[in-house]
Amino acid sequence: MTETETNVYDVVVLGAGPVGENVADRARAAGLSAAIVESELVGGECSYWACMPSKALLRPAIARADARKVPGLSQAVQGPLDASAVLAHRDYYTSNWKDDGQVQWLEGVGVDLYRGHGRLDGPRRVTVEGPDGERHVLTARHAVAVSTGTRAVLPDLPGIAEVKPWTSREATSAQAVPGRLVVVGGGVVGVEMATAWQALGSQVTLLVRGKGLLPRMEPFAGELIAEALGEAGADVRTGASVESVTREGGTVVVTTSTGDRIEADEILFATGRAPRTDDVGLETVGLTPGSWLEVDDSLRVTGTDWLYGVGDVNHRALLTHQGKYQARIAGAAIAARAAGVPLLETDTWGAHSATADLAAVPQVVFTDPEAGSVGLSLAEAEQAGHRVRAVDVDLSTVAGAGLYADGYRGRARMIVDLDSETLRGVTFVGPGVGELVHSATIAVVGEVPVNRLWHAVPSYPTVSEVWLRLLEAYRDSK
Domain Pyridine nucleotide-disulphide oxidoreductase dimerisation spans what residues (predicted)? Predict the structure, then answer.
């Protein structure tokens, strides 16, 4: 192994997913030099095994479900999806798992790319073992950012490795539709992949340990999605965990805590994530390998003045768009500290404070129906000690919903802080509601008073008119 001479940069980033790319981009925009290290594909999990391929698989399923509820169109879309075409379209959106375009983007913004495995080697120092055995040493004048993301966690079941189960990666990159698929886990990955593969022709059995789906959202979100999955032909079983799993020939055999025996062609475990920090050299700077990185609101790792943990590795909000938001905050903080700014704007909603991680995280679950939320649920707001009121509206009462789909089923809830009369959180469930979430995000982040929202007039007849119904319901409840 040959060691090259040390290369010095202002900022060194470990991980070239969307988060790491944005940290490096913000550094370059501030006039700092930046290098980024990646052991797999530039573009990361989101581009090749998560957001993009999963949504490419889901879009035809959701579009068909919507079309089947539109008079004059429903009879034309009763047949099966063209699975080959859907998978080919998914491959297009992953660039066939090639990262040439992403590499070109990095070159365009002036960020140096080092292929290989990067590890911390003491403060402000990173070593990179290249694919051909070469060794690079990178030194950072100002900051090193760890943006290595997370990996799927498999349960500790005897013989699980021999079963060769799917994780989220196999679920989004599979080249054929399994006849029978068991999905374990009722979180976002579980319900989205159950939706996609059931629509593509699999017979899906969804096993959920708890009482319902999407436990971090309002309870009605999981209830409506479970109902729709059942109507689509999936077998949704709550209160059921996997006791054992084996592969007998080509068949997966699952036994559950309820005593059931299920046979399938594949099994997907969507049961949690762990940080990819086990082999990045944390021990060389006094941190524990494999741990989540504890950071302040500027994303700087606790106890350091040079190390940043940005994106999923800090466990604040495991979402691509939230990680990119953190990258923008971290990039601004790194640039300000490099310029010698004596006092950063780290107060609530300040330029160097990732406030939204705590107060206004938006998320859309791309199922049928869609679920979207921002901010706190009713339970979270009450647990935080806020004096709040939940206001609920049946989305089918909105004219735009009736035009969107016959038999439209959905629900909206806003959580009003009774002291400030601003919104602590909003949740929507129903066809097409994903596009409503940003309006709710603006209301929550902007702390827009309810009496000012009266003057934000929704266009008629759109589903957005639910905002007027929510405000009326709050007024009538006072």
Answer: 361-467
Tokens 């319900």, located at residue? 191
Retrieve residue 239's tokens.
């209160």
DSSP letter for each residue of 62-122: HHHHHHTTSTTTGGGG-S---HHHHHHHHHHHTGGG--HHHHHHHHHHT-EEEESEEEE-S
Q: DSSP string of 330-341? A: HHHHHHHHHTT-
- What pLDDT digit, counting tens, does each position of 325-337 carry? 999 999 999 999 9
Neighbours of 204 (CB within 10 A): 26
The span from the CA of 154 to the CA of 196, in Å, is: 21
Reference 210, options 201, 219, 202; nearest CA is 219
In terms of Cα–Cα distance, which of 457, 463, 461, 364 is closest to 408?
Answer: 463
Burial label, 96 (beta-carbon count in 10 A; 0-12, 13-18, 19+):
exposed
Helix, strand counts (H, E) of the chain: 16, 22
What lies within 8 Å, CB to CB, of 394 at 6+ separation is 410, 411
- Is the alpha carbon torsion for 229, 231, 232, 237 positive or negative? positive
* Three-class secondary structure of residue 478 per DSSP: coil
Helix ranges restricted to H, 181-218: 188-200
Taking residue 394's Cβ as centre, other Cβ atoms within 10 Å add up to 15
Read off the pLDDT of residues 25-57 as tens digits, 9 standing for 90 and up. 999 999 999 999 999 999 999 999 999 999 999
Mean pLDDT over each residue of the chain, to the nearest integer: 97
Tokens of 65: 């479900």
Paired tokens of 268 = 């997907």
Instruction: Report whether 13 contacts 104 (CB < 8 A).
Output: no
Confidence class for position 477, pLDDT limits 50, 70, 90: confident
Is the backbone peptide bond immediately before 458 cis, with ω within 30 degrees of 0? no
Q: Count how many Cα atoms sit within 13 Å of the Cα of residue 208 in the half-sphere of its side chain.
A: 23
Q: Measured on CA atoms in the order 157, 158, 161, 165, is the torsion positive or negative?
A: negative
Provide the 3-class DSSP secondary structure of residue 185. Answer: coil
Between vectors from CA 32 to CA 31 and to CA 34, what angle results, nearest 5°?
A: 130
Distance from the Cα of residue 61 to its chain's centroid: 19
Tokens of 161: 């490795």
Buried b (16+ CB within 10 A) or exposed e, 45-66: bbbbbbbbbbbbbbbbbbebbb
Q: What does the block give as tokens for 7?
A: 């290369």
- Cβ 25 vs Cβ 159: under 8 Å: no
Mind listing the pLDDT tens digit for each residue in 250-259? 999 999 999 9
Helix (H, G, I), strand (E, B) or coil at 385: coil
Characterize the bridge pairing of strands 34-38 and 112-115: parallel
